[in-house]
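Here is the promised in-class demo. Please do not try to memorize the tokens; focus on the logic of going from shape to residues.
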């Protein structure tokens, strides 16, 4: 009995090692060995480590009809300030562009420096949430998963902005993009005439 248990433990470790190499086509036969291992050991109350359980579930995912983890991706996250130099008292658009493949969107968060001032979460109601930040007046009616409109900007908003995109299962990854905004004063008509 001890030798049989040792053999199955050794086989399971070999399978676990093979799953690290991300060969999705080989997942289909590995799952049957792992199932046999779990069924064999369950009656004997053998303790199975957390790492092995994670391997088991990963193998289940490989054998499922869902897309492979290697096909899911969060790419091309960029933040654009339009216009990059905005006049004081005017509106500015922060546009967050990204590409999600094989996974739904979990959330998009916008930051001024280190402080979050707007969040879009499609899985919650309401989808949008505005956090108080001095000088930032978010137009929530036109802000969404890809843009935030700020009305009546002031000088103290010049500086760094960021958007943080998080993908939902099965990807669970986060990417952040940064951009600079510059707030300028109105140009006097007299100065334009002199030029």
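The designed amino acids, position by position:
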């Amino acid at each position: 009995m001890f030798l049989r248990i040792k053999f199955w433990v050794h086989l399971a470790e070999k399978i676990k090692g093979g799953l690290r190499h991300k060969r999705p086509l080989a997942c289909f036969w590995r799952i049957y060995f792992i199932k046999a291992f779990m069924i064999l050991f369950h009656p004997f109350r053998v303790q199975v480590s957390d790492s092995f359980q994670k391997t088991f579930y990963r193998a289940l995912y490989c054998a499922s009809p869902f897309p492979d983890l290697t096909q899911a991706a969060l790419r091309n996250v960029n933040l654009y300030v339009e216009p990059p130099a905005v006049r004081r008292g005017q509106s500015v658009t922060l546009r967050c562009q990204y590409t999600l493949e094989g996974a739904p969107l979990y959330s998009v968060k916008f930051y001024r420096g280190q402080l979050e001032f707007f969040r879009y979460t499609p899985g919650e109601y309401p989808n949008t949430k505005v956090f108080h930040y001095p000088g930032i007046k978010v137009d929530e009616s036109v802000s969404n998963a890809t843009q935030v409109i700020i009305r009546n900007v002031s000088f103290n908003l010049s500086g760094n902005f960021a958007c943080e995109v998080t993908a939902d299962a099965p990807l669970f990854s986060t990417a952040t993009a940064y951009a600079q905004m510059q707030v300028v004063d109105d140009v006097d008509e007299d100065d334009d005439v002199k030029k």
